Amino acid sequence: MSEEITEVVTEDTEFVGAYPQIAQKYKNGDELTDEELDTVADVAIAVLRDLLGFFDAADSPIDEYDGDEGELILDVTAPNLAVLIGRHGRTLESLQTMFQLLVSRKLGFRYPVAVDVEGYKSRRRDKVVSMAQSAASRAARQHGSVNLPPMTPYERRLIHIALRDDTRVETHSEGVDADRHVVIVAL
């Protein structure tokens, strides 16, 4: 399967930077029009469908919506797609990385587009935010620090965002690679 995926990455080189006007506008910080956003979404959905084809899921329904941080979220909804999530979301994380690279290459710029499967990331986000708030309360109550378990970069980012306005605590990440985790410190 890795050879097939490599072919997808390399055979699409004629699409590199296929949208220079949109890329320049986005890089300048200008707001994209609805039509330009639709183009970004169409490109992202086409890339996702190509990737889903490797899992015999190219015809799966894809819900499209805006995220809290301004990103485009594509949620694949179909039964029996647990293989796309993998253990602890690792496969989904890898799929996200490959997907983002392919979309960026086709667009000619990096637009924030996230892939979710059956709302897994949404449920996980809620759980991580709840964990962050509990840990922040515990750190504040004990006037100390709380080390959270190792998490993915996405999950660590969720913790930092969830607690950035909490005046009782501050957060930072420690550790290396798979052992990197968030530390919540009472102020």
Attribute tags:
Ribosomal Protein S8, Chain: A, domain 1; 50% helix; alpha+beta; 16% strand; 6 strands; single chain; 7 helices; three-stranded antiparallel β-sheet; 187 residues; GMP Synthetase, Chain A, domain 3; three-stranded mixed β-sheet
Topology:
Blueprint: H1 2-11, H2 20-27, H3 34-53, E1 62-66, E2 72-76, H4 82-85, H5 90-107, E3 113-117, H6 120-142, E4 145-147, H7 153-163, E5 169-174, E6 181-186
Parallel strand pairs: 2-3
Antiparallel strand pairs: 1-2, 4-6, 5-6
Give the structure's gist in a few sentences.
Helices cover about 50% and strands about 15% of the residues. It has about 190 residues and is of the alpha+beta class. It folds into 2 domains: about 1-120, 2-Layer Sandwich (GMP Synthetase, Chain A, domain 3), CATH 3.30.300.20; about 120-185, Ribosomal Protein S8, Chain: A, domain 1 (2-Layer Sandwich).
What does this structure look like?
A hairpin with a 5-residue loop joins strand 1 (62-66) and strand 2. The protein is α+β, with helices and mostly antiparallel strands and 187 residues long. The chain has two domains: 2-118, K homology (KH) domain (GMP Synthetase, Chain A, domain 3, 2-Layer Sandwich); 122-186, Ribosomal Protein S8, Chain: A, domain 1 (2-Layer Sandwich). The model is unreliable at 1-16 (pLDDT under 50). The strands form two sheets. A three-stranded mixed sheet has the order 1-2-3, with helices on both faces. Strands 4-6-5 form a three-stranded antiparallel sheet, with helices on one face. Helix 6 crosses helix 7 (153-163). The radius of gyration is 19 Å and the shape is globular. 50% of the residues lie in helices and 16% in strands. The termini are far apart. The protein contains seven helices and six strands; from the N terminus they run H-H-H-E-E-H-H-E-H-E-H-E-E.
